[in-house]
Amino acid sequence: MKEIEDNADRASGFLKGLASPHRLLILCQLVESEKSVTELIAATGLAQTSMSQHLSKLKEEEIVTFRRDHRTLYYRINNNAVLKIMDVLYKEFCQKLDKESTK
Amino acid sequence: MKEIEDNADRASGFLKGLASPHRLLILCQLVESEKSVTELIAATGLAQTSMSQHLSKLKEEEIVTFRRDHRTLYYRINNNAVLKIMDVLYKEFCQKLDKESTK
DNA sequence: GTTTTATATTATATTTTTATGATATCATGT
DNA sequence: ACATGATATCATAAAAATATAATATAAAAC
């Protein structure tokens, strides 16, 4: 019983990591390929500080990881579960343009 | 471009609906079968007010729906995307008991 | 129609999340 | 060593989420 609650805590931490419009935009970028922080800022329009904090949160939940090349950090998606969830979200919220009419 | 942000907002609202340990416990119950509010309270140990608020949030995000039978409301999962995400979470956080050693 | 059972709503205090501004660090080029 | 570019950390104010207590509603039993 205690174990289920532990799992619920970890799973919900993970979901909270994903559950922000700005972090989803970041992850959309990273689904394509790894990106530097500067590239992510350009692509999303977020302030530098805010980007850094979002990336920090994503790292904390092990949603992303990064490598360093000279002074540039390249972030990428770390976790296969993230890709699966992004896929579910894409089908549910991006592809579903009134599919009812096709039925 | 505006469309992507709209989608990110809706998707993140949906994820926020899921991203709570208590709501995940509720949903774990509902994966098995529909349940009345009283049954959910017994199964999770949540306070009645708190349960009602969580269910309200889950309804708001169209994660669950319900039917009435006399004075009892039976809630159930409303959305196939929810089941898919629960499946991902289950595999990631409940089945993964150091599977590395089996590799 | 009054009571009882099941559930929702409202109010509020607490905690958490987020954005912003200022400053710091770290690697590199000069 | 110093300036610069890339990124992180710290402080803080504003907004959102949560739990709890109190009250309300709605359906059925009596």
Overall description:
Two copies of one chain form a homodimer. Chain A has 103 residues and is α+β, with helices and mostly antiparallel strands. In chain A, strands 1-3-2 form a three-stranded antiparallel beta sheet. In chain A, strand 2 and strand 3 form a beta hairpin. The interface between A and B is medium-sized, with 30 and 30 residues. Chain A binds a DNA duplex (30 and 30 nucleotides) through helix 4.
Poorly predicted regions of chain A? none
Shape of chain A: globular
Proportion in β-strands of chain A = 5-15%
Rg of chain A, alpha carbons = 16 Å
Tell me the span between the first and last alpha carbons of chain A: 43 Å
Largest interface: A-B, 30 and 30 residues
Figure out the total of helices of chain A.
Answer: 5
Order of helices and strands of chain A: HHEHHEEH
Features:
63% helix; homodimer; 5 helices; alpha+beta; DNA-binding; 103 residues; 3 strands
What can be said about this structure in brief?
The structure is a homodimer. Chain A is of the alpha+beta class. Helix content of chain A is about 65%, strand content about 15%.
Q: What's the layout of helices and strands?
A:
The structure is a homodimer of 103-residue chains.
Chain A: H1 2-18, H2 21-32, E1 35-36, H3 37-44, H4 48-60, E2 64-69, E3 72-77, H5 80-94
Chain A binds a DNA duplex (30 and 30 nucleotides) through helix 4.
